[in-house]
Amino acid sequence: MKINRLTMAAIAASAAFAAATPAFAGSCPAGQSAHNPLAGAPTAPSNVTDDLIGSVDLAKEIGVADRDLRMRRLVVQPGGVVPVHSHAGRPALIVVVSGSITEYSSACAVGIDHKAGDISSESDGISHWWRNNGQMPAVLLSADVKARD
C-alpha cells in the first residue's frame, strides 16, 4: 500500500507526540482490579468515526498470514461510544491525541480515565468498551494487529 505525504506526516507527528509524553496509562486504580463481566455494555458504536489511515500486510513483512498492522483515527464525540470488543489475539496501542475518554474493562471494577497524551496498551485477551464522558471530542490514534475479515 502506498502511503501519501499527509499520512506520513500524521504518523510522524503522532510518534513525536507520543515520544514527548510517554505516559502509559490504562491501569486499573489500586484496589480496583476485579473480574468485570461488562453486563449491559453497548454492542454498537455511537457518535464515533473510525478512519483507516494505513495498513501493512504482515504476511509480506514478517510471515504472519492473514493479519494486518493498521493505524486508525477515531473521533468520539461527547456521549459517544466505542462498543465492547475483545483483544484476544489482537494487541493494540492507543494514543489519546486530544480530549479525554473513559475505558470500561473486563479486568477493572471502575472506569479508567484517559487524557490527552496517555498511551493505553491493549492485549492479553482483555475485553472493554469506551465512552466519552467529556464535553469535547476525544481524538484517538489506534495501532493494532487485526485478522483479515
Automatic annotation (TrEMBL):
Keywords: Signal. PROSITE patterns: PROKAR_LIPOPROTEIN. Residues 1-25 form the signal peptide. Gene3D superfamilies: Jelly Rolls. Residues 74-142 form the Cupin type-2 domain. This is Cupin domain-containing protein. It comes from Sphingopyxis jiangsuensis.
